[in-house]
Amino acid sequence: CLLPGPWQLNTLIFCLSILATAVPYAGDLHLGFFRIDDPQYVVGNAWIQGVTWEHVRQILSSPYYLNYSPLHLFSYMLDHAIAGLNAYAFHLSNNLWAGVVAGFVYLVTLALTQHRPTAIAAALLFLVHPVHVEAVAWISSRKDLVAAAF
Predict the structure, then answer these.
(1) pLDDT tens digits, 77-90
(2) Long-range contacts: 30-35, Cβ < 8 Å, 24+?
(3) pLDDT digits (tens, 9 = 90+) for 17-42
(4) How open is the CA angle 36-70-27, to the nearest 5 degrees?
(5) Residues contacting residue 71 through CB under 8 Å, at least 6 positions apart
(6) Where are the domains of the chain?
(7) Which three-class secondary structure state does DSSP give residue 61?
(8) The pTM is what?
């Protein structure tokens, strides 16, 4: 039996951390758009409704509601291009971002400690810690997840 090498095992654990977001956050997929900020950031945001050079220019050159964070606006644009204004898709995207960040928590902790069980525990703790519920369940708070990923 061939055992996977370290990079294959780390890739597998990273991918499993993305799938693990389904455990604590599956319930948020059917929440719809929230009344606070989602109408401004997503539903009524003309910049994300169509992938055009003009929208890209606006996102890159102007703050949106006093925030200059273009990456999360591009992620909304991608969601809209794939699924339109389907809140389920936007929530699913937030869950995926949370899983990616948990995967990075695993990799950073592994690099710092060189101890895989500690790194897995850190990633799982990140996923289930209640402080992250707002960032994952509230579509407009995606900017926190995107910033953490970069």
Answers:
(1) 999 999 999 999 99
(2) 30/88, 30/91, 31/87, 31/91, 31/137, 32/87, 33/87, 33/90, 33/139, 34/138, 34/139, 34/140
(3) 888 988 899 999 999 999 988 998 89
(4) 45
(5) 146, 147, 150
(6) 6-149
(7) helix
(8) 0.89
